[in-house]
Amino acid sequence: MAKTNLTLQLDQDIIRRARVIAAKRGTSVSALVAVELAGLVDQDARYEEARGRAEELMRDSVDRGGRSWRRDELHER
Predict the structure, then answer these.
(1) CA distance linking residue 1 with residue 28, whole number of Å
(2) In which region does residue 32 sit, left (phi positive, over 0), alpha (psi from -120 to 50) or beta (all else)?
(3) Chain CA centroid to CA 67, Å
(4) Phi-psi region at 34: left, alpha or beta (left = phi > 0; alpha = psi -120 to 50)
(5) What pTM did the predictor assign?
(6) Cβ distance 33 to 8 under 8 Å?
(7) So what's the pLDDT on residue 40?
(8) Would you say 32 and 25 are in contact if contact means Cβ atoms under 8 Å apart?
(9) 55/61 Cα distance (integer angstroms)
(10) What DSSP assignment string belongs to 16-62?
(11) Which pairs with CB-CB distance under 8 Å and at least 24 residues apart come from 57-61?
């Protein structure tokens, strides 16, 4: 898969702290960002897939003949 550069503007303190984390993990800030973004994209794809399945299930479900209640019926004493 072809890689493309991405430019970010972050606070200097965030960059400094990210460099420390990357060094502890033996990687680069770029790799940290790439992993986090890939995880975010994957999570969104799984959510959309699950939502589509849920919508399909609701669309294909059989009406169970649920009852509609009127407000006065619910508050009768």
Answers:
(1) 20
(2) alpha
(3) 35
(4) alpha
(5) 0.69
(6) yes
(7) 98
(8) yes
(9) 10
(10) HHHHHHHHHHTS-HHHHHHHHHHHHHHHHHHHHHHHHHHHHHHHHPP
(11) none
Could you tell me how many residues make up the chain?
A: 77
**Cα(27)–Cα(47) distance, rounded to whole angstroms?**
29
* CB environment 53-69: b (16+ within 10 A), e (fewer): eeeeeeeeeeeeeeeee
Residues whose CB is less than 8 angstroms from the CB of residue 25 and which lie 6 or more positions away in sequence, other chains included: 32
Instruction: Return the half-sphere exposure (C-beta side, CA atoms, 13 A cut-off) of residue 3.
Output: 6
Mean pLDDT, the chain, integer: 92
Q: Which two tokens stand for residue 58?
A: 């609701």
